[in-house]
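Milestone 3.1: sequence recovery, worked example.
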């Protein structure tokens, strides 16, 4: 901190900070004062899962040919990577898009951040589903990378 060679413990570091609200952004979650005293709405998680499923189902028919992971298998073969890596690239692309949207002050016309978050969530679940598929088919995960 500020050129000092003194190492502070986590508690000392938090206590040594000014009481400015800008530090709330970097303080560990459990050390922050409650911003919302109302109880959490448990439906948010289920609502998110329902939206993820709806997005997946609405787009899946555009990308599949009766093979659950066919589009990813074809992309992997064309790119010279594994299917898992092909899926991970798509997750990374959506993550880069999310970061750009969050740090960019330009208003986008094509894809709001909610769409990016949903697409990234879908790809993460597809990646997990592919992991389950490999397990069920006796494929050693070490062969993926």
């Amino acid at each position: 901190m500020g050129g000092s060679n003194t190492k502070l413990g986590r508690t000392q570091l938090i206590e040594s900070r000014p009481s400015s609200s800008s530090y709330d952004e970097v303080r560990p979650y459990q050390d922050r004062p409650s911003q919302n005293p109302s109880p959490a709405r448990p439906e948010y998680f289920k609502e998110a899962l329902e939206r993820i499923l709806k997005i997946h189902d609405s787009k899946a028919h555009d990308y599949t040919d009766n093979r659950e992971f066919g589009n990813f298998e074809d992309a992997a073969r064309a790119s010279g990577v594994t299917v898992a890596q092909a899926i991970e690239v798509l997750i990374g692309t959506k993550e880069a898009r999310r970061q750009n949207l969050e740090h960019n002050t330009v208003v986008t016309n094509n894809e709001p951040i909610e769409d990016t978050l949903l697409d990234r969530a879908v790809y993460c679940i597809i990646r997990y589903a592919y992991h389950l598929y490999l397990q069920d088919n006796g494929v050693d995960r070490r062969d993926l990378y």
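The chain has a mean pLDDT of 76. The helical segments are 10-16, 43-63, 70-79, 83-103, 113-136.
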